[in-house]
Amino acid sequence: MKCNMCPRACNVDRNVNTGFCGMTNDIYAARAALHMWEEPCISGEHGSGAVFFSGCTLRCIFCQNSEIAAAQVGKKITVERLSDIFLELQDKCANNINLVTATHFVPQVAEALVKAKNKGLVIPVVYNSSAYENVSTLNMLDGLVDVYLPDMKYIDSRLSAEYSKAPDYADVAKAAIHEMVRQTGKLEFFIEDDELVKSGRVEAGIMKKGVIVRHLVLPGTTKDSKAVIKYLIDTYGDDIYISIMSQYTPFDRLKKHPLLSRKVTRKEYNSVVDYAIDCGINNGFIQEGDVAEESFIPEFDYEGI
């Protein structure tokens, strides 16, 4: 069967060849462990059970997970093993299962989730995505995913073409996020009276249902960042959370890109946050202090795989 699961529409047989994502149909992952650096309502005190999949449908030149995005790191696992990994993370008191960049493995992930739920998986499932998704692929996750954690990287197609090799990114992401909101409905959080909280499975305050859209502010692109924020607030209001991120890290490989070879300034980041406030944002996360550090990047050492 030819693969057209993502907007690249490679139309290749991934049983024998790799797609744009760099992967065949075999599942490859690089890490499955408690992750403490997501938004507070995702990680909580115990951590989010993050499974980092190899390969990616984008080619962001500033990617902080470039090793696994380029399919250079990863260990082959079966659907059965993936379902067991979900349960092992639950046993480690993860607040949720966090599927990081799973687009190109969605049919296998959906199968693994069904198996895990049949074997006792009860914590929420988070789909952590670039939002470069086909709506038809997201439909496979309807009823299996509780929380969507997509990016909204750009509005400007020139930026998305230059930085991610995806001139159609904005239109694709808008449609994908619309579907994510449709699936999850209103924002819900765990409270003290919830059975999963009383049983110790999940912490109070963890997101139960909903969408958090992330936007990473890039150096020299505050105009586009503000366009992203305006679109999200105008379109969704208080129906979603918006996470405005300042953790852009200027790796050495970006020296040939003048704008991307430096950190985001505090002035740039604050101007985007202030704009969001002026637009009437109520549900939002911001980052304080100097967070452009590689400490946010985990070791892809096959832990938990």
TrEMBL record:
[4Fe-4S] cluster binds at C56, C60, C63. Residues 52-171 form the Radical SAM core domain. Binds 1 [4Fe-4S] cluster. The cluster is coordinated with 3 cysteines and an exchangeable S-adenosyl-L-methionine. Its cofactor is [4Fe-4S] cluster. Gene3D superfamilies: Aldolase class I (3.20.20.70). Keywords: Iron, Iron-sulfur, Lyase, Metal-binding, Pyruvate, S-adenosyl-L-methionine. InterPro entries: Aldolase_TIM, MJ0674-like, Pyrv-formate_lyase-activ_prd, rSAM, rSAM_sf. GO terms for molecular function: iron-sulfur cluster binding; lyase activity; metal ion binding. This is Putative pyruvate formate lyase activating enzyme.
